[in-house]
Amino acid sequence: MTTPKPCLPATAVARFLQLIRFSHTIFALPFALAALVVAARGWPDGRVFALVLVCMILARTAAMLFNRLVDWSIDQRNPRTATRHLLLPQPVAWGLLVLCAAGFIVAAAAINSVAGLLSLVALAIIFFYSVTKRFTDATHFFLGVALAVAPAGAWVAQTGRLELPPLVLGLGVICWVAGFDLIYATQDYEFDRREGLRSLVVKLGIARSLRVAQWLHLGMLVALGAFGVVAQLGLIYYCTTPLIAAALVYEHRSAASADLAGINRAFFQSNAFVSAVFLVGTVADVVSRS
């Protein structure tokens, strides 16, 4: 009996976008744009907005390419990711990684000198996450730090300095990302154990990891409240909290079903909803009072 060939996207662009999970850009991007609007106390300058958008896309693309390249052989052995290496030749992936990283540095430097200097730190942080599963159980938190770079970078792009509000928001992003990554990592529990890869799911087991994820998402809600205080936001912003909480509850209920399709569906839908609602609520609040 022959093994059926995997169904891959027809075009090279579609395969590339699938490799880097471009649709997941919606997770971190709204937090960066919201921080940008808060820092500007209204609509930011069009040039800064465009450059921040370019930086976000290039940085995330570089991070995803680096992650795929570092895990190239591991992904081939994982049934869930076994076809990833077929999406793009490895040398092409390396070339695109260099181009995206260089483009990110150039775009950041075009914003202001501080952003240009910190772009190197940002790349180091987002690349470092990809190797953490080899030596620490806290890999989920390093992913959170990598995504928390987004609002901090946007704030620096607007103001030229790093202040308390983006740090508080970044803490919320870390809790949010670590929580949903714990849920997502339950899919690879058996594989990671066999391969000797590190994660809290491997260390704690699925049930306890899901409880930790619940506490982390509660911590996210607290941090979002604190961000509203330090950023001096108003009622419209706080009205988003119940909606975000409801989306997180939906995600956790789906995870409890231990259904792979349900986890994947809830992972994308609920997290996309959280980030979109946060962006809309924050922008509406700031613009209404500017």
Provide an overview of this structure.
With 290 residues, the chain is an all-alpha fold. It has a single domain, classed as UbiA prenyltransferase (Tetracycline Repressor, domain 2), CATH 1.10.357. 77% of the residues lie in helices and 0% in strands. The protein is built from 14 helices and no strands. It starts with 11 loop residues before the first helix and ends with a helix.
In a nutshell, what does this entry contain?
The chain is mainly α. The chain has one domain: Orthogonal Bundle (Tetracycline Repressor, domain 2), CATH 1.10.357.
Could you tell me the radius of gyration in angstroms? Answer: 19 Å
Q: How many domains in all?
A: 1
| Distinct helical segment count | 14
The CATH fourth-level homologous superfamily: UbiA prenyltransferase
User: What is the name of the CATH architecture?
Assistant: Orthogonal Bundle
CATH topology, anyone?
A: Tetracycline Repressor, domain 2
Low-confidence stretches: none
* Helix share bin: over 70%
Could you tell me the strand content as a percent range? under 5%
Class by SSE composition: mainly alpha
Beta-strand segment tally: 0
Q: Mind describing the biggest β-sheet?
A: none
The CATH class assignment is Mainly Alpha
Shape: globular
Task: Write down the secondary-structure element order.
Answer: HHHHHHHHHHHHHH
Task: Calculate the terminal CA-CA distance, rounded to whole Å.
Answer: 67 Å
